[in-house]
């Protein structure tokens, strides 16, 4: 079964949603939710009994007895996240606060087949039910590249994986596992981790640099996924369509930059890059070589910087975000390179937008960021759904 993403938040779900951002007293929860104190007390009591919430401290004293602060209880419920990386996949189990409890990177599945993914996920769920026997599996979030139907959970198409077309993966896994399942774009999942505790109903964006460039957009604090679940994706050929760089759109991909370097590199640099197995590692190695003065790497990274910075400027002019985060493979880049990309973008901006734009590097830089983000996407949709009361789930 696929989790319903239709907003219809009841009082318990509203309480948990607010407490995911920070602990609150009953008075603060009353102001945030707008419900009466008796209703709020009953809902909080039920959520504490069901181990969604617990007392985490005391509010600052203002003359009387300090009020209890309620926060998320991380000891009961488990969220499962799966990142379909193509090649390979990564699975994580996390508590409600985003703390990783378990992680698995299956071997021998570089070329993902739908049946293999289905079997691996079900096997992982079975193992968690044994190893985390004192906890309740709440649901499953999938993160995938490509275009996705946000309502049905079907993978519509993945450009570099021809056999993943109109695949009802979420529905199939939900039916087999008995758990609610959501699916979304993997860069959007990384952005969900980045902005989970932002707490600002503003406009901000995450620039995901991987096998292309994708701007994950948050409008008034809410993610915008678009009709086909992949809004913000820009074809590298459009980014590179200028001057001599029209023939080098692959410089705006992780694989492409490394391969272009290997075509022209001096022996020592080529050996260093070829010794690395993963595309992301090779990409970061080329960035390091550029930092150390390798002329071939410097030239290629310079072209990448100019093209990406120019496209970021066009995006900022279009949507005027107040915060822009550079992530994906760029999360491992040096401060110098990120500053250079930022500088190119700002050269193309009017003073008003330049002065009001904050650019920073992604803080979530671990390989499990997308899988962990998928758990956050699941939780946000789950709490917004019209579904059974939280106090009855996982007890």
Written description of the protein model:
The protein has 395 residues and is of the alpha/beta class. The chain folds into 3 domains: 11-72, Arc Repressor Mutant, subunit A, CATH 1.10.10; 77-193 and 369-392, Nucleotidyltransferase, domain 5, CATH 3.30.420; 202-361, ATPase, nucleotide binding domain (Nucleotidyltransferase, domain 5, 2-Layer Sandwich). It has 14 helices and 16 strands. The chain has helices spanning 11-21, 26-33, 37-49, 114-131, 169-177, 186-195, 236-239, 254-264, 267-274, 279-291, 295-319, 335-347, 351-355, 369-384, and strands at 53-58, 68-72, 77-84, 89-94, 100-104, 136-144, 147-148, 155-157, 165-167, 181-185, 204-210, 212-219, 222-224, 233-234, 323-328, 358-361. Strands 11, 12, 13, 14, 15 and 16 form a 6-stranded mixed sheet that branches. Strand 3 and strand 4 (89-94) form a beta hairpin. Helix 4 (114-131) runs parallel beside helix 5. The chain starts with 10 loop residues before the first helix and ends in an 11-residue tail after the last helix. Residues 1-8 have low confidence and may be disordered.
């Amino acid at each position: 079964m696929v989790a319903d993403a239709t907003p219809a938040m009841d009082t318990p779900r509203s309480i948990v949603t607010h407490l995911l951002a920070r602990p609150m007293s009953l008075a603060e929860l009353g102001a945030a939710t707008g419900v009466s104190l008796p209703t709020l007390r009953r809902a909080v009591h039920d959520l504490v009994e069901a181990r969604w919430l617990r007392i985490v401290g005391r509010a600052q004293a203002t003359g009387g007895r300090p009020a209890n602060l309620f926060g998320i209880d991380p000891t009961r419920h488990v969220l499962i996240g799966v990142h379909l990386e193509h090649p390979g996949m990564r699975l994580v189990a996390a508590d409600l606060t985003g703390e990783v409890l378990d992680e698995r990177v299956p071997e021998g599945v570089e070329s993902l087949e739908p049946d293999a993914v289905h079997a691996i996920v079900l096997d992982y769920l079975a193992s968690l039910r044994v190893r985390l026997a004192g906890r309740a599996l709440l649901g499953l979030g999938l993160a995938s590249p490509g275009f996705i139907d946000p309502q049905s959970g079907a993978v519509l198409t993945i450009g570099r994986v021809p056999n993943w077309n109109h695949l009802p993966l979420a529905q199939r896994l939900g039916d087999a596992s008995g758990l609610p399942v959501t699916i979304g774009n993997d860069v959007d999942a990384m952005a969900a981790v980045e902005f989970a505790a932002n707490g600002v109903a503003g406009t901000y964006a995450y620039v995901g640099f991987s096998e292309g460039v994708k701007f994950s957009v948050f409008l008034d604090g809410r993610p915008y996924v678009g009709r086909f679940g992949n809004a913000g994706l820009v074809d590298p050929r459009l980014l590179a369509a200028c001057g001599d760089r029209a023939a080098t759109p692959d410089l705006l991909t992780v694989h492409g930059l490394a391969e272009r370097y290997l075509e022209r590199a001096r022996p020592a640099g080529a050996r260093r890059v070829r010794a690395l197995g993963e595309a992301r590692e090779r990409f970061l190695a080329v960035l390091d070589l550029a930092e150390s003065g390798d002329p071939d790497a410097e030239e290629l990274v310079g072209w990448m910087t100019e093209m990406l910075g120019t496209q970021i400027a066009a995006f900022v002019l279009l949507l005027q975000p107040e915060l822009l985060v550079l992530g994906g493979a760029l999360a491992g880049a040096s401060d110098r390179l990120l500053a250079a990309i930022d500088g190119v973008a700002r050269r193309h901006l009017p003073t008003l937008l330049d002065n009001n734009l904050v650019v920073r590097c992604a803080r979530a830089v671990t390989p499990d960021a997308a899988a962990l983000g998928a758990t956050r996407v699941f939780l946000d949709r789950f709490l917004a759904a019209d579904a059974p009361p939280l106090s009855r789930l996982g007890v």
